[in-house]
Amino acid sequence: MIYKKPLFWILVLLVMIAAALLALWLTQPGEKAEKNVQTSEPSRAGSLITEEDGQIEPNLPQATEDADDIDWLEIDTDIADYLSFDKQNHMIYFVGLNLFEEFGTEEFGYANEGSVQIDRGEKLLYFGLTVSTGSVTGALDGPAVSFEMSLETHNLLDKSFEPAPDYLALGLSELAHYSKMMIEPDDARLIEVGEFFETFIMELEVNLP
After folding, report:
1. How far apart are CA 90 and CA 62, in angstroms?
2. Are β-strands 49-52 and 55-58 bridged in parallel, bridged antiparallel, or unpaired?
3. pLDDT tens for each residue of 187-205
4. Do residues 33 and 69 share a domain?
5. Which residues, in sequence order, are CB contacts of 88 under 8 Å at separation 6+?
6. 67 & 24 share domain
């Protein structure tokens, strides 16, 4: 009979080994899934920080499109003489920013004024600043720097440099050395400024009520 032949038992043994290996392979996914559940990180539900596509980014309300809907909160900081923050619109306004030497003059010091805003929907950062080199209009006048930076790639999408007034032509000879003065930081420096304010605004949003 066939079950008395050695070949039969060899085949039976091979089938049993194959069945055992198949059973072991089928149980591995379940064991791995159970292990993953046990070792997964605590839930971040309710946190202001979320992880999306492998990147950590703020999970904050979208900026309102109503320009009149602004609620400024003055911030005590060493980076400027005055700084206020509008959390709803992800915007800061500053006077006397002293972190970047390009935005000051030897004569007037860090006499400047500007703002930074983050657009969460478009994932963009907008920066604009004017450095005082002497007033013509009674307000702060001087060279201006503005740029737009992508928050996804940290590349500059746009930049603009405006000169100071032509003081000599305006009859302000004492300010003639600032006539048409330009401040033109290179792209790397502008990105450094943008990245600083991206982090600064995110920290304000996380830590302020």
Report:
1. 9
2. antiparallel
3. 999 999 999 999 999 999 9
4. no
5. 61, 63, 64, 69, 70, 71
6. no
Counting Cβ atoms within 10 Å, is residue 171 exposed (0-12), middle (13-18) or buried (19+)? exposed
Give the integer Cα–Cα distance in Å for 43 and 169. Answer: 64
Instruction: In whole angstroms, give the CA distance from residue 18 to residue 98.
Output: 73
Answer for the pair 201, 193: CB distance below 8 angstroms, yes or no.
Answer: no
Q: Which residues contact 53 (CB under 8 A, 6 or more apart)?
A: none
Per-residue tokens: 74: 């003055």
Full-model pTM? 0.65
pLDDT, one tens digit per residue, over 65-100 is 444 455 789 999 999 999 999 999 999 999 999 999
**Residue 143 token pair:** 């060279």
Tokens of 141: 């006048």
Q: Answer whether residue 56 is part of any domain.
A: no
Q: What is the pLDDT of residue 169?
A: 93
CA distance 162 to 84: 25
Q: Which conformational region is residue 165 in: left (phi greater than 0), alpha (psi within -120 to 50 degrees), or beta?
A: beta
Instruction: With H, G, I as helix, E, B as strand and everything else as coil, classify residue 35.
Output: helix
Classified as helix, coil or strand, 123 is coil
* Residues 136 and 188 reside in one and the same domain: yes
- Residue 12's domain comprises 2-39
Q: Are 174 and 182 in contact (CB under 8 A)?
A: no
If DSSP codes are grouped into helix, strand and coil, which group holds residue 129? strand
